[in-house]
Description:
Order of helices and strands: HHHEEHEEHEHHHEH
Number of strands: 6
Strand order of the largest sheet: 2-1-4-3
Distance between the termini: 26 Å
Low-confidence stretches: none
Radius of gyration: 18 Å
Largest sheet: 4 strands, antiparallel
Helix content: 40-55%
Strand content: 5-15%
Structural class: alpha+beta
Shape: globular
Amino acid sequence: NYAAYVELMSQKRFISWRSFLAGKDLMDLDWLWDKLADKYPINEQLINQGHKEFIAVATDVDTGNPTYLKPSSADLHEVLLASSGIPIVYRNFTKILEKRFTDGVVSDPLPIQYAIDRGATEVLLLRTRPADYRSKNNLMDSAWSLLLMKYPKLRISFDNHNKMYNDSIQVINTPPKGITVLQICPPETMKTERMSQDVLRLIDDYNLGYHTGLKFINEQT
């Protein structure tokens, strides 16, 4: 991940407003995925080994509902792309079994309730926001919502994103009886956002996350 952000995602060709205004992707995820597969391939055999499940959340474009995909080594590439392809930013919705999918964060930004519904009693969340962060609408969200008018169900989920996020925070802070929820959160708002390409800031936030993780581990032992 470190190499992907610092070496690949910081390149000008990955995020291009000129391409976006010309009707292409703002984020060239196809290029990124090909580079990652070539330079830092995932050990796909591990996906089907052991007793743990690996599940990725994606949003069904036509229904706006979350879909919890369990990839195999054969479709791991497509599932991860579907789960992370931000709508509009990545115009080519990923097709899996003839259904179109986009970023899972649209319909289930913090899938704590899904984990509980599946029977989890101990849940660990890795978050990119401080523990006291609450999601709220901004001008960019309103503009993005207008761009989704061709996809009415997806737009509804997008517009409800803030409520869904904050509802999940409520579950995290007051989990049901018998459920333990732990979370690793940065102690402060990070310097980078989703489309940041400043290498020095990326490195700073990487170090912040790394040391936050170590601190958490030390506190549990």
